[in-house]
Amino acid sequence: MNQQTPYAIGTPGKPWGAAEIATWRSRQVKRRDFGQDVLRAIDSLRERFDISGYGKLDYDGERFPLLAVRTLDWRDDLPVMLVTGGVHGYETSGVHGALQFLRDHGGDYAGRANVLVVPCVSPWAYERIHRWNPDAIDPNRNFREGSPSGEAAALVNLLAPLHGRVLMHIDLHETTDSDESEFRPALAARDGKPFEPGEIPDGFYLVDDTENPQPAFQQAVIEAVAKVTHIAPADARGEIIGSPQVAPGVIEYALKALGLCAGITGARYTTTTEVYPDSPRATPQQCNDAQVAAVRAAIAYALAAPAMT
Protein backbone atom coordinates (compact mmCIF):
# COMPACT_ATOMS: atom_id res chain seq x y z
CA MET A 1 0.00 0.00 0.00
CA ASN A 2 1.45 3.39 -0.97
CA GLN A 3 0.39 6.74 -2.32
CA GLN A 4 0.14 5.30 -5.85
CA THR A 5 -2.20 2.48 -4.77
CA PRO A 6 -5.54 3.95 -3.70
CA TYR A 7 -7.38 2.43 -0.77
CA ALA A 8 -10.23 0.14 -1.83
CA ILE A 9 -12.93 2.53 -0.58
CA GLY A 10 -13.42 6.15 -1.55
CA THR A 11 -11.93 8.60 -4.02
CA PRO A 12 -8.34 9.77 -3.51
CA GLY A 13 -8.26 13.28 -2.10
CA LYS A 14 -11.91 13.24 -1.04
CA PRO A 15 -12.94 12.53 2.58
CA TRP A 16 -15.44 9.76 3.12
CA GLY A 17 -19.11 10.49 3.43
CA ALA A 18 -21.94 8.34 4.71
CA ALA A 19 -21.87 6.05 1.65
CA GLU A 20 -18.19 5.25 2.02
CA ILE A 21 -18.53 4.63 5.75
CA ALA A 22 -21.46 2.31 5.10
CA THR A 23 -19.41 0.42 2.51
CA TRP A 24 -16.50 0.12 4.92
CA ARG A 25 -18.79 -1.09 7.72
CA SER A 26 -20.38 -3.72 5.48
CA ARG A 27 -16.96 -5.28 4.97
CA GLN A 28 -16.23 -5.72 8.69
CA VAL A 29 -16.82 -9.32 9.73
CA LYS A 30 -17.09 -10.73 13.24
CA ARG A 31 -13.97 -12.83 13.83
CA ARG A 32 -14.08 -13.53 17.56
CA ASP A 33 -16.60 -13.37 20.39
CA PHE A 34 -16.58 -10.67 23.06
CA GLY A 35 -18.94 -12.67 25.25
CA GLN A 36 -16.87 -15.83 25.20
CA ASP A 37 -13.47 -14.16 25.41
CA VAL A 38 -14.09 -11.20 27.70
CA LEU A 39 -17.44 -11.33 29.49
CA ARG A 40 -16.88 -14.93 30.57
CA ALA A 41 -13.44 -14.05 31.95
CA ILE A 42 -14.85 -11.07 33.84
CA ASP A 43 -17.70 -13.15 35.21
CA SER A 44 -15.18 -15.58 36.74
CA LEU A 45 -13.85 -12.71 38.88
CA ARG A 46 -17.15 -11.81 40.58
CA GLU A 47 -16.29 -13.32 43.95
CA ARG A 48 -13.08 -11.31 44.18
CA PHE A 49 -14.02 -7.95 42.64
CA ASP A 50 -16.87 -5.50 42.29
CA ILE A 51 -18.06 -5.70 38.69
CA SER A 52 -20.40 -3.02 37.39
CA GLY A 53 -21.73 -1.79 34.08
CA TYR A 54 -21.00 1.74 32.96
CA GLY A 55 -23.04 1.75 29.76
CA LYS A 56 -24.19 -0.23 26.76
CA LEU A 57 -23.49 0.05 23.07
CA ASP A 58 -26.10 -0.84 20.48
CA TYR A 59 -24.87 -1.16 16.92
CA ASP A 60 -27.49 -2.35 14.43
CA GLY A 61 -29.07 -4.57 17.04
CA GLU A 62 -25.79 -5.88 18.43
CA ARG A 63 -25.66 -4.99 22.12
CA PHE A 64 -22.43 -4.78 24.06
CA PRO A 65 -22.35 -4.23 27.83
CA LEU A 66 -19.48 -2.07 29.05
CA LEU A 67 -18.00 -3.41 32.28
CA ALA A 68 -15.59 -2.08 34.87
CA VAL A 69 -13.85 -4.19 37.51
CA ARG A 70 -13.04 -2.58 40.87
CA THR A 71 -11.39 -3.42 44.16
CA LEU A 72 -13.99 -5.19 46.25
CA ASP A 73 -13.33 -3.13 49.40
CA TRP A 74 -13.06 0.29 47.77
CA ARG A 75 -11.85 3.00 50.15
CA ASP A 76 -12.22 6.68 49.39
CA ASP A 77 -9.03 7.50 51.32
CA LEU A 78 -6.84 5.42 48.99
CA PRO A 79 -5.38 6.43 45.61
CA VAL A 80 -6.88 5.00 42.44
CA MET A 81 -4.83 2.93 40.00
CA LEU A 82 -6.56 2.82 36.62
CA VAL A 83 -5.92 0.25 33.89
CA THR A 84 -7.66 0.45 30.51
CA GLY A 85 -7.43 -2.05 27.67
CA GLY A 86 -9.02 -2.62 24.30
CA VAL A 87 -9.44 1.03 23.36
CA HIS A 88 -8.41 -0.30 19.97
CA GLY A 89 -10.23 -3.61 19.81
CA TYR A 90 -7.73 -5.31 17.53
CA GLU A 91 -4.88 -4.87 20.02
CA THR A 92 -5.35 -8.24 21.64
CA SER A 93 -2.85 -8.19 24.49
CA GLY A 94 -4.34 -4.93 25.76
CA VAL A 95 -7.54 -6.81 26.56
CA HIS A 96 -6.08 -10.13 27.63
CA GLY A 97 -3.20 -8.54 29.50
CA ALA A 98 -5.70 -6.54 31.56
CA LEU A 99 -7.70 -9.69 32.29
CA GLN A 100 -4.55 -11.62 33.20
CA PHE A 101 -3.47 -8.84 35.56
CA LEU A 102 -6.85 -8.96 37.30
CA ARG A 103 -6.79 -12.72 37.61
CA ASP A 104 -3.24 -13.01 38.91
CA HIS A 105 -2.49 -9.72 40.66
CA GLY A 106 -5.61 -7.56 40.93
CA GLY A 107 -6.00 -8.36 44.62
CA ASP A 108 -2.38 -7.61 45.56
CA TYR A 109 -3.04 -4.00 46.56
CA ALA A 110 -5.73 -4.37 49.23
CA GLY A 111 -5.44 -1.66 51.84
CA ARG A 112 -2.92 0.31 49.75
CA ALA A 113 -4.78 1.33 46.60
CA ASN A 114 -8.08 1.07 44.79
CA VAL A 115 -7.66 -0.77 41.49
CA LEU A 116 -10.06 0.01 38.64
CA VAL A 117 -9.73 -1.95 35.40
CA VAL A 118 -11.72 -1.53 32.19
CA PRO A 119 -10.50 -4.51 30.16
CA CYS A 120 -12.26 -3.88 26.84
CA VAL A 121 -13.30 -0.33 26.00
CA SER A 122 -14.26 -1.18 22.39
CA PRO A 123 -16.08 -4.55 22.19
CA TRP A 124 -17.42 -4.14 18.63
CA ALA A 125 -13.90 -3.51 17.37
CA TYR A 126 -12.58 -6.37 19.49
CA GLU A 127 -14.86 -8.77 17.62
CA ARG A 128 -13.90 -7.37 14.19
CA ILE A 129 -10.20 -7.06 15.06
CA HIS A 130 -10.32 -3.41 14.07
CA ARG A 131 -9.15 -0.04 15.28
CA TRP A 132 -12.35 1.93 14.70
CA ASN A 133 -15.93 1.69 15.89
CA PRO A 134 -18.69 1.02 13.29
CA ASP A 135 -18.91 4.72 12.47
CA ALA A 136 -15.25 4.64 11.32
CA ILE A 137 -14.30 6.68 14.40
CA ASP A 138 -11.11 6.02 16.34
CA PRO A 139 -12.04 6.22 20.05
CA ASN A 140 -8.46 7.08 20.92
CA ARG A 141 -8.65 10.52 19.41
CA ASN A 142 -12.00 11.31 21.00
CA PHE A 143 -11.77 11.02 24.78
CA ARG A 144 -13.48 14.29 25.64
CA GLU A 145 -16.85 15.70 26.64
CA GLY A 146 -19.42 15.32 23.87
CA SER A 147 -17.36 12.66 22.12
CA PRO A 148 -18.78 11.26 18.86
CA SER A 149 -17.47 7.85 19.95
CA GLY A 150 -19.88 6.01 22.22
CA GLU A 151 -16.98 3.99 23.59
CA ALA A 152 -15.01 7.08 24.55
CA ALA A 153 -18.04 9.00 25.89
CA ALA A 154 -19.01 6.14 28.19
CA LEU A 155 -15.51 5.89 29.65
CA VAL A 156 -15.26 9.66 30.13
CA ASN A 157 -18.54 9.58 32.06
CA LEU A 158 -17.38 6.65 34.18
CA LEU A 159 -14.18 8.40 35.19
CA ALA A 160 -15.52 11.94 35.66
CA PRO A 161 -16.31 11.44 39.39
CA LEU A 162 -12.74 10.26 39.98
CA HIS A 163 -11.02 13.31 38.50
CA GLY A 164 -8.21 14.34 40.83
CA ARG A 165 -8.21 10.99 42.64
CA VAL A 166 -6.53 8.82 40.02
CA LEU A 167 -2.83 8.61 40.83
CA MET A 168 -1.82 6.33 37.96
CA HIS A 169 -3.42 5.49 34.62
CA ILE A 170 -1.87 2.95 32.26
CA ASP A 171 -3.55 2.37 28.89
CA LEU A 172 -2.64 -0.93 27.22
CA HIS A 173 -2.04 -0.93 23.46
CA GLU A 174 -0.19 -2.66 20.65
CA THR A 175 1.56 -1.48 17.50
CA THR A 176 1.01 -4.07 14.78
CA ASP A 177 2.08 -4.64 11.19
CA SER A 178 -1.56 -4.08 10.22
CA ASP A 179 -1.19 -0.46 11.36
CA GLU A 180 0.90 0.10 8.26
CA SER A 181 -0.83 -2.32 5.89
CA GLU A 182 -4.46 -1.45 6.73
CA PHE A 183 -5.26 1.08 9.42
CA ARG A 184 -3.09 4.03 8.45
CA PRO A 185 -4.01 3.67 4.75
CA ALA A 186 -7.68 3.51 5.77
CA LEU A 187 -7.25 6.63 7.92
CA ALA A 188 -5.67 8.54 5.05
CA ALA A 189 -8.48 7.46 2.70
CA ARG A 190 -11.18 8.35 5.23
CA ASP A 191 -9.75 11.83 5.66
CA GLY A 192 -9.00 12.40 1.96
CA LYS A 193 -5.26 12.65 2.55
CA PRO A 194 -2.30 10.91 0.90
CA PHE A 195 -0.90 7.92 2.72
CA GLU A 196 2.76 8.30 3.67
CA PRO A 197 4.36 5.00 4.71
CA GLY A 198 6.11 4.72 8.04
CA GLU A 199 8.07 2.15 10.01
CA ILE A 200 6.80 -0.33 12.59
CA PRO A 201 9.22 -0.61 15.54
CA ASP A 202 10.24 -4.11 16.58
CA GLY A 203 9.61 -4.20 20.30
CA PHE A 204 7.86 -2.66 23.27
CA TYR A 205 7.72 1.09 23.86
CA LEU A 206 5.84 3.65 25.96
CA VAL A 207 4.12 6.97 25.29
CA ASP A 208 4.62 9.58 28.02
CA ASP A 209 2.69 12.87 28.31
CA THR A 210 4.35 15.91 26.75
CA GLU A 211 2.54 18.19 29.22
CA ASN A 212 3.36 16.08 32.30
CA PRO A 213 6.48 14.04 31.60
CA GLN A 214 7.44 11.50 34.23
CA PRO A 215 10.73 10.05 32.98
CA ALA A 216 11.58 8.05 36.12
CA PHE A 217 8.15 6.45 36.07
CA GLN A 218 8.51 5.50 32.40
CA GLN A 219 11.97 4.10 33.03
CA ALA A 220 10.69 1.90 35.86
CA VAL A 221 8.09 0.41 33.54
CA ILE A 222 10.61 -0.11 30.73
CA GLU A 223 13.03 -1.88 33.09
CA ALA A 224 10.29 -4.26 34.26
CA VAL A 225 9.10 -5.07 30.75
CA ALA A 226 12.66 -5.61 29.48
CA LYS A 227 12.76 -8.73 31.66
CA VAL A 228 9.84 -10.13 29.66
CA THR A 229 10.31 -8.91 26.08
CA HIS A 230 12.63 -6.72 24.05
CA ILE A 231 12.39 -2.92 23.96
CA ALA A 232 11.98 -1.19 20.61
CA PRO A 233 15.04 0.67 19.32
CA ALA A 234 14.76 4.07 17.69
CA ASP A 235 15.01 4.22 13.92
CA ALA A 236 17.82 5.87 11.97
CA ARG A 237 16.30 9.29 12.69
CA GLY A 238 16.20 8.68 16.43
CA GLU A 239 12.41 8.28 16.30
CA ILE A 240 9.74 5.71 17.11
CA ILE A 241 6.63 5.90 14.87
CA GLY A 242 7.63 9.41 13.80
CA SER A 243 8.21 10.87 17.28
CA PRO A 244 11.61 11.58 18.83
CA GLN A 245 12.77 9.02 21.36
CA VAL A 246 13.25 10.89 24.65
CA ALA A 247 14.66 7.87 26.54
CA PRO A 248 15.18 4.22 25.61
CA GLY A 249 11.79 2.94 24.48
CA VAL A 250 9.93 6.17 25.34
CA ILE A 251 8.29 8.84 23.20
CA GLU A 252 5.89 11.64 24.15
CA TYR A 253 2.46 12.77 22.96
CA ALA A 254 0.22 15.59 24.18
CA LEU A 255 -2.28 13.14 25.65
CA LYS A 256 -5.15 15.45 26.57
CA ALA A 257 -4.89 17.72 23.54
CA LEU A 258 -4.99 14.71 21.22
CA GLY A 259 -7.99 13.19 22.98
CA LEU A 260 -6.08 10.08 24.01
CA CYS A 261 -7.36 7.72 26.68
CA ALA A 262 -4.41 8.17 29.03
CA GLY A 263 -5.17 11.90 29.22
CA ILE A 264 -8.70 11.56 30.64
CA THR A 265 -8.13 11.75 34.38
CA GLY A 266 -5.31 14.21 34.92
CA ALA A 267 -3.42 11.51 36.83
CA ARG A 268 0.07 12.29 38.03
CA TYR A 269 1.49 9.16 36.42
CA THR A 270 0.28 8.23 32.95
CA THR A 271 1.59 6.03 30.19
CA THR A 272 0.44 4.17 27.11
CA THR A 273 2.03 0.79 26.47
CA GLU A 274 2.77 -0.41 22.95
CA VAL A 275 3.47 -4.12 22.53
CA TYR A 276 4.61 -5.50 19.16
CA PRO A 277 2.82 -8.86 18.71
CA ASP A 278 4.07 -9.42 15.15
CA SER A 279 7.71 -9.68 16.19
CA PRO A 280 9.35 -13.06 15.52
CA ARG A 281 10.86 -12.61 18.98
CA ALA A 282 7.53 -12.47 20.83
CA THR A 283 4.69 -14.93 21.48
CA PRO A 284 1.06 -14.03 22.33
CA GLN A 285 1.64 -15.09 25.93
CA GLN A 286 4.79 -13.02 26.10
CA CYS A 287 2.79 -10.00 24.91
CA ASN A 288 0.22 -10.53 27.67
CA ASP A 289 3.02 -10.97 30.19
CA ALA A 290 4.61 -7.73 29.03
CA GLN A 291 1.35 -5.85 29.63
CA VAL A 292 1.06 -7.37 33.12
CA ALA A 293 4.66 -6.48 33.93
CA ALA A 294 4.01 -2.91 32.82
CA VAL A 295 0.89 -2.59 34.99
CA ARG A 296 2.58 -4.02 38.06
CA ALA A 297 5.63 -1.80 37.65
CA ALA A 298 3.46 1.28 37.12
CA ILE A 299 1.45 0.62 40.28
CA ALA A 300 4.56 -0.18 42.32
CA TYR A 301 6.25 3.04 41.26
CA ALA A 302 3.17 5.16 41.99
CA LEU A 303 2.75 3.61 45.45
CA ALA A 304 6.42 4.16 46.33
CA ALA A 305 6.66 7.73 45.00
CA PRO A 306 6.52 10.55 47.54
CA ALA A 307 3.28 12.48 47.73
CA MET A 308 3.07 15.78 45.91
CA THR A 309 3.30 18.85 48.11
Output the number of helix runs. 8
Number of strands: 10
- What's the order of the H and E elements? HHEEEHEHHEHEHEEEEH
Low-confidence stretches: none
Profile the largest sheet. Answer: 8 strands, mixed
Bin the helical content.
25-40%
Tell me the strand percentage band.
15-25%
Cofactor: Zn(2+)
InterPro entries: AstE_AspA_cat, Peptidase_M14
Keywords: Carboxypeptidase, Hydrolase, Metal-binding, Protease, Zinc
GO molecular function: hydrolase activity, acting on ester bonds; metallocarboxypeptidase activity; zinc ion binding
Description:
There is one protein chain. With 309 residues, the protein is an alpha/beta fold. It has a single domain (18-304), classed as Aminopeptidase (3-Layer(aba) Sandwich), CATH 3.40.630. The chain is 31% helix and 20% strand. Strands 1-2-4-3-5-10-6-9 form an eight-stranded mixed β-sheet, sandwiched between helices. The protein has a two-stranded antiparallel ribbon with strand order 7-8. A hairpin with a 2-residue loop joins strand 7 (239-240) and strand 8. Helix 7 (215-225) packs antiparallel against helix 8 (284-304). The mean pLDDT is 96.
Essential attributes:
single chain, alpha/beta, two-stranded antiparallel sheet, 31% helix, AstE_AspA_cat, metallocarboxypeptidase activity, hydrolase
In short:
The protein has eight helices and ten strands.
Topology:
Blueprint: H1 18-26, H2 34-43, E1 49-59, E2 62-71, E3 80-85, H3 92-105, E4 114-118, H4 123-128, H5 150-159, E5 166-174, H6 177-191, E6 205-209, H7 215-225, E7 239-240, E8 243-244, E9 250-253, E10 269-275, H8 284-304
Parallel strand pairs: 3-4, 3-5, 5-10, 6-9
Antiparallel strand pairs: 1-2, 2-4, 6-10, 7-8
Helix pairs in contact: 3-8, 7-8
